[in-house]
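Researcher: I'm preparing a figure for a lab meeting and need a structural model of a single chain. I don't have an experimental structure, so a prediction will have to do for now. The sequence is pasted below. Please return the structure as C-alpha cells so I can convert it later.
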Amino acid sequence: MKWLVLLGLAAFTECIVKIPLRRVKTMRKTLSGKNMLHGVLKEHAYRLSQISFRGSNLTIHPLRNIRDIFYVGNITIGTPPQEFQVIFDTGSSDLWVPSDYCNSLACSTHVRFRHRQSSTFWPTNKTFRIIYGAGRMKGVVAHDTVQIGDLVSIDQPFGLSTAEYGFRDRSFDGVLGLNYPNQSCSRAIPIFDKLKNEGAISEPVFAFYLSKDEQEGSVVMFGGVDHRYYKGELNWIPLVQAGDWTLHVDRITMKRGVIACSDGCAALVDTGASHIQGPGRLVDNIQKLIGAKRCGFKHYVSCSVVNTLPSIIFTISGINYPVPAQAYILKDSLGHCHTAFKEKRVTTSTESWVLGDVFLRLYFSVFDRGNDRIGLAPAV
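Model: Understood. Here is the structure written out cell by cell.
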C-alpha cells in the first residue's frame, strides 16, 4: 500500500493512500473454520554477512494467504488482549483497527476494539484521516499494549477508526505498517521502531515469505532471517533513499527487449499490494504484448496459452528477477485467467512501479532498516 502524503495540518493530518484493494469474501466467510498454520519453524536463524545475528531472538509470525490476494496475520491489542487480523504492510507506517464507536457499515463487518474493556488503554485528542484508492477512513490516536506473537509493545500508539468507507467486504480488520516513520499519517511512532528502540528486536530487520496457490506457510519474521525459506544467496539492493522501501530498477524486459523503465526507474517493494503496478501507458503496452483483452477492470487471456507467454524480467542492481506467466496470470472465482498488472491510480512525475505480492511470492524479501537496503532471493 503506497501512502502519498499530500497534505498535513497541525491539528488534523490527511493522507492520500494508493492501495490496490480487490473485492474478496470477508475473512469470516472465506475461512469458516480457523485455518491456523502448523509447523512454523523458529530456529536456526541464518547469520547474514555484514549483520550479526549471534544471540538474536528470531520471531516468526504466521500469515494466512487469502486467495493469493491478501496475507493477514493476527495481533492483539489491550489488556486482556483482543485479537485482530491485519495486513503487515511495507508500503505504510501506521497501525490501525476499527473502534467500537465506529458506526460505519464497514466497521460492522470487522472486529472492533472495545476500549472500555482494556485496563491499559488511554486516548489522545489527536485525529487523522487516510484516503485510499478504494476507500477511506478517519480516526483517533490512542495508546495500549500491542502484541505480535511473542513481541510486546507497551504503551504503543495506534489508530482507532471512527469512520470507514469502502472496506465492508475486505478480508482484514486493519493494517500494521512497516514502512519508515516519516511515512506515518498519524505521526505516531510505528510499532517496529518502538520495538527496535526498546531492544525487543535484536536486529533491525524483518522478512517475508509469501506462499503460492492459497497454501499455508506464509510468515513474517522479525529480528533475523531463517535461510530455509529461500534458495541461494541474498542479493542486497540499496534503497533509492532512506525513508521508503523503494529500489532503483535498471530496466524491465521481455524476450522482445526493453518494454519499460528504459532509463531506469523506481519501484516500491510493497507487501500490502496484490499486483504489480506501473504507469498506465506502459502497463497497457504489456497487456498488448501478451495479448490480454480488457473486460471490466481486468485484462484476460485464454488459460490455454499461459504456458506459452513470456516472462517479464525486472533487472535490479544488475541482477535479473524474472516473473513468469504462471505468476503474473491469476484466476478469478469463475476460473477465468487475468493478468496481475495494474495501472497506478496516482501518477508521478517520473516512472515508478509497485512490486506487490505477485513479485514477492517468487522472491523471499528482507527489509534491513539498519543498512537501508532490501535483500532478495528466490523463495523455496
